[in-house]
């Protein structure tokens, strides 16, 4: 009889990273998935589900206008609990650091169901950066029975927190698995065609800690960059947050700055592949870009993904106007530096993470005898 694995996610980034795992679980002879989405991000989540041809078994649809973290946490906790009671899964799989992740893990713990944590062990050790993700991540660790660390550094973070080495598996990151199915050389887009021959900077900025003055500085830097380089175009898929959109509309009025709606996952990955530079305050993009040979300027003061900084493909620039402008100018002007950064091997994965996670779960239940080998990019 197959083990029943409940896979829970609620946001667009989670969906992108869990979709390859769900589709691999469907093929497993030992495991079967029960897919539960909370729809913490409704529209953006649906785009990913459609792209990967996933139909959830349960859709909690928790998103509400002006929702708070407390509202999301309580709704997810209560509703996931009832599904766990009904379905009696052998394990609940959660991902990363969202409010959905923590609440679902807590619900599983209350029902004494094993928890597997995908993308475990990332840390900044600053509980307000990123907020609330850092504490969601740490609290989920305490609730988990299996920890799927994407890198050796993430594993070492867990070991330093006295997590048993027997429960940690280094798998690489599932987002690289997703890229293997979404990026194609034949991709076409009217927006990209419009700027044929231009150098495209892809911008994403939406984090809570960057709202207000930090985001104003980011947007002001963007205008300076396009005014300095006449062959540069900035494409900004705006987050649905009304506060982000208000600031973008006010400060990014320029003929070579394109404000567009959030991109579906297939579009976003291909836009990233065709861009020159990526500026972002997102986490997942930091992992994806090295596989696309794109340098990334991270619009945050700290990152829980230091491997990319150490390898050179990522640079932390924070939200300082001068640092953003100077670092971007350097990449646009220094061809040698650009090539060096673009050719760094991805430290985050090799496209086999989902398979390693499934093998690790099978090993945990004694369904296979040999412990899976850890991912290593060395």
TrEMBL record:
Q: Is Isomerase set as a keyword in this record? A: yes
Taxonomy, superkingdom? Bacteria
Q: Which GO terms describe its molecular function?
A: UDP-N-acetylglucosamine 2-epimerase activity
- Name the UniProt key words of this record, in alphabetical order: Isomerase
Stretches assigned to the UDP-N-acetylglucosamine 2-epimerase domain: 24-361
Q: What is its EC number?
A: 5.1.3.14
Q: Where is the signal peptide?
A: none
Q: What sort of enzyme, by top EC class, is this?
A: isomerase
Q: Which family does it belong to?
A: Belongs to the UDP-N-acetylglucosamine 2-epimerase family.
Extract the PANTHER family matched here. Answer: UDP-N-ACETYLGLUCOSAMINE 2-EPIMERASE (PTHR43174)
Entry protein name: UDP-N-acetylglucosamine 2-epimerase (non-hydrolyzing)
Q: What is the native source organism of this protein?
A: Nosocomiicoccus ampullae
